[in-house]
Amino acid sequence: MNVLVINCGSSSLKYQLIDSDSEQVLAKGLCERIKIDGRLKHSPAGKATVEMDSPMPDHTAAVELVLKMLTDSEHGVIRSLDEIGAVGHRIVHGGEKFASSTIITDEVIEAITECNDLAPLHNPANLIGIESCRKLMPDVPMVAVFDTAFHQTMPEKAYLYGIPYEYYEKYKIRKYGFHGTSHSFVSKRMAEILGKKPEELKTIVCHLGNGASICAVKNGKSVDTSMGLTPLDGLVMGTRSGAIDPAVIEYIAEKGKKSISEVIDVLNKESGVAGVSGVSSDFRDLDNAILAGNERAKIAMDVFCYRVAQYIGSYTAAMNGVDAIAFTAGVGENNATARAGIFEYLGYLGIKLDTEKNKLRGEEVQISTDDSKVPVWIVPTNEELAIARETVALL
Ligand code: ADP
């Protein structure tokens, strides 16, 4: 079956058409500047990538163009829309309502809408993607796959904040965690690589991209993760601060004459390694700046690595041990400097870095030495494939 995987943002839409039998990507692409003007990048397997400007007054127009390109005689990969058996939608926030993926019905759409307050930037956009696809493919079954669902197994002691309980009861304020599809995919793959069942392992997954989070996976279940009510918590990221003393918010607001939401904007968009270094949120730029002797770029890298190492220590304690550690996503898969920096703190666990293997990037490889007490691997993530698998499994 061909599964169309849709990841719909407020002004963008990423897609992949995946043959679920062979797990090959038949085509992938990106619509950008939706509601502004509209730009499409479409890459069909075995054919040249097409880039074009095309008006996208709304998301439905973007989906329409994607379907046209997929069935186009020159740039397409299927003959007609009948060859799309299902659509899998990435949904950011499922609150406490969704502990697993689900087939999309009117009731499910309503329940996702009820989670909008928890992810006001993402969920409404995700829902627009669903509505657009329903309009254009009314008979094709659709599945919602949630970023938060995998973490619904966290125990209360991990997801409750130390604030009055009524805020949890009234407003559902708690840790939810994100990147669940990736943490689930990578932890399962880590078990496969080691020839174990997920139920036999304590794994720490470090999803280090522009957005970054860590997950403690015990016996195949998420027992803790570093992002919180929103993706702002936890690690120091590309542009996000990660965890800070909450009182800092009022302090910046007073000193900088900003509103709370302006301060939160600074913490989301102008902080992280970009804010500390003053150079960039991109780790390739940081690497280059460090090589050129930029002191603040070096400090930003140190801050990033130190925080990751702190979480690894914390989750080793939470699980009373760790059997495997996996690095994934843009930085985790590709950035040797960050990985080496993190390893410097892991000696107490008997973990040793293989400096030659650590030079490899983007491939499944063990980067710890053979005598390292805990194996550490690069395990490339594939959220689209995970969504396609979930979609087929549910149908
Ligand atoms: P997100 O999905 O959260 O937007 P990604 O997982 O794509 O983020 O990660 C983006 C980060 O990965 C950037 O900081 C980028 O520098 C880093 N990255 C990607 N490719 C490489 C590479 N070849 N070498 C070093 N860093 C890389």
- Overall mean confidence score, pLDDT: 96
Beta fraction: 15-25%
Spell out which ligands are present: adenosine-5'-diphosphate
Number of helices: 14
The oligomeric state is single chain
Low-confidence stretches: none
Give the domain tally: 2
Largest sheet: 8 strands, mixed
Explain this structure to me?
The structure is a single chain. This protein is of the alpha/beta class and 395 residues long. The chain folds into two domains: 2-146, Nucleotidyltransferase, domain 5 (2-Layer Sandwich), CATH 3.30.420.40; 197-378, Nucleotidyltransferase, domain 5 (2-Layer Sandwich), CATH 3.30.420.40. Helix content is 37%, strand content 19%. It has 14 helices and 14 strands. An eight-stranded mixed beta sheet has the order 5-4-3-2-1-6-8-7, sandwiched between helices. The chain has a six-stranded mixed beta sheet with strand order 11-10-9-12-14-13, with helices on both faces. α10 (283-291) packs across α11 (295-318). The chain binds adenosine-5'-diphosphate. The site of adenosine-5'-diphosphate has 13 residues, from α10 and α12.
Give a concise summary.
The chain has 395 residues and is of the alpha/beta class. It has 14 helices and 14 strands. Helices cover 37% and strands 19% of the residues.
